[in-house]
Amino acid sequence: MNATLLSRSLAIALACLSTSAFAAKPIGYGAGTTGGGDKTPIKVATLAAAQAAIDSYSGSGGLVLLYTGVFDYAQITDVCAQWKKPAQKLVIKDKSDITVKGANGSSANFGVHIVSDAKNIIVQNMTIGLLPGGEDSDAIGVEGDSSGKPNKIWIDHNTIFSSLTHCPGAGDASWDGAIDHKRGAYDITISYNYIHDHQKVTLNGHSDDDDTNASMRATYHHNRYENVESRLPLQRLGRTHLYNNYYNNVITSGINVRMGGLSLIESNYFENVKNPVTSRDSDAIGYWELRDNFVGSGITWDDPGSSGVNATDWKTTKAYGPTGYTYKLTPAAKVKAKVIANAGAGQKRLN
User: Which compartment or compartments is the protein found in (predicted)?
Assistant: First the structure.
């Protein structure tokens, strides 16, 4: 092997090594998602370069982007200036078999938007923070439309944050969702993400009158939520399985199941959470099956309104039935330590 080929081989090996801890397969409704598979990673350091690579990709067969850019969040001296700026998004539309993976130590000030007939997509090891764009900008958004519904999506080992500051003039949209999926997107696994200092964490279903929500299925496991306000997730219709997640310092409400949605909430760890499991703010309630959750100190409740209900008795309101997949539970009392040690960008993957 000549020196040029050797150098190229070493560079590829190092690129793969920097994220090799994430070779495990997704568990849950997103099982079978392979993204770009073992295609040679294309290194990109900017949003423009990443978008150009996706735009020039045929749309199937495999594409792996290794994002190496670094954004200095310290340069944002006024967080309340961010919502007034144009949103910045990496758009994956009507294309499939794609992995977007952050190199260890990378960081971004743009979101990833997976839309329409996009299938088999992985977003992994990205650090995304303090996004511009307000309500027009999710950190990671998955959204169907009349042309198709994204499916087979794996969102894994990312770190997402913004600010708990409510900016004058922004209403409730100083920042939008950390990880949102809506308008019929389905078969999604959200695992080992660390979301902190964020207001509206996860929207699962666009609006109360959108019946495409009924087909949505999502698994959330081993995620870390700290210093957040609400939507863990906000679920309308559909089915969710939430297991082995860690919830701490939740200001307004946690898991909010609405409009006939059903959630299996299993072996999670809650502490310092207001309204950890609730149904509120819609005309129709949702339902849950609760299994073996750890309920620590600092749990509080407030009135869910005349059309709402809280899980103050920690009892099941509707059986979930079989999930249709196999998974291994961490005992609830051990979830906090495991999740803190392993969730977020740059951390080791453990099933």
Answer: Secreted
Assign 349 a pLDDT band (cuts: 50, 70, 90).
low
Residue 13 has pLDDT above 90, yes or no: no
Model pLDDT, residue 83: 97
Residues 6+ apart with CB under 8 A from 256: 230, 231, 232, 233, 234, 235, 275, 278, 279, 280, 281, 286
CATH superfamily, domain at 28-342? Single-stranded right-handed beta-helix, Pectin lyase-like (2.160.20.10)
Enumerate the active-site residues.
231
